[in-house]
Amino acid sequence: MTGILLGQEARKRKTPQEKIAIIQQTMEPGMNVSHVARLHGIQPSLLFKWKKQYQQLS
Fold first, then answer.
1. Is 8 part of any domain?
2. CA dist list (Å): 24 to 6, 41, 46
3. Domain range holding 18?
4. pLDDT in tens, the chain (58 residues)
5. What is the rounded CA–CA span in Å between residue 27 and residue 34?
6. Which of 10, 32, 45, 46 has CA 20 to 30 A from 20's CA?
7. How many structural domains are present in the chain?
8. Residue 31: its pLDDT value, please?
9. Which region holds residue 12: left if phi is over 0, alpha if psi is between -120 and 50, else beta?
10. Model-level pTM?
11. 3 inside domain
12. Could you tell me which of 32, 13, 41 has the C-alpha nearest to residue 23?
């Protein structure tokens, strides 16, 4: 209840498929990590971390 009063939203975990789709958006022309992170309501640092992990696995 306090989260609602303070304007905080509950965290939503992203599935691996969602993470990959978000990472791939950063690779589209005209898109950058900060913009994509803002679109999805996540911190740019988290998206940079996901992108680094994705690149290491590829």
1. no
2. 33, 16, 15
3. 13-57
4. 555 566 666 778 999 999 999 999 999 999 999 999 999 999 999 999 999 999 999 8
5. 12
6. 10
7. 1
8. 97
9. beta
10. 0.79
11. no
12. 32
Q: What is the DSSP string of 1-58?
A: -HHHHTTPPPP-PPPHHHHHHHHHHHTSTT--HHHHHHHHT--HHHHHHHHHHHHHH-
Residue 6 placed within a domain: no
> Which single residue is written with the structure tokens 């680094």?
52
Greatest extent of the chain over all pairs of C-alpha atoms, in Å: 43
For CA atoms 26, 28, 32, 37, the dihedral sign is negative
Q: What is the pLDDT of residue 58?
A: 85
Q: Say which residues have a Cβ less than 8 Å from residue 44's Cβ, sequence separation at least 6.
A: 33, 34, 37
Residue 10: what pLDDT? 74
Cα distance between residue 27 and residue 58, in whole Å: 14
DSSP type of residue 29: T
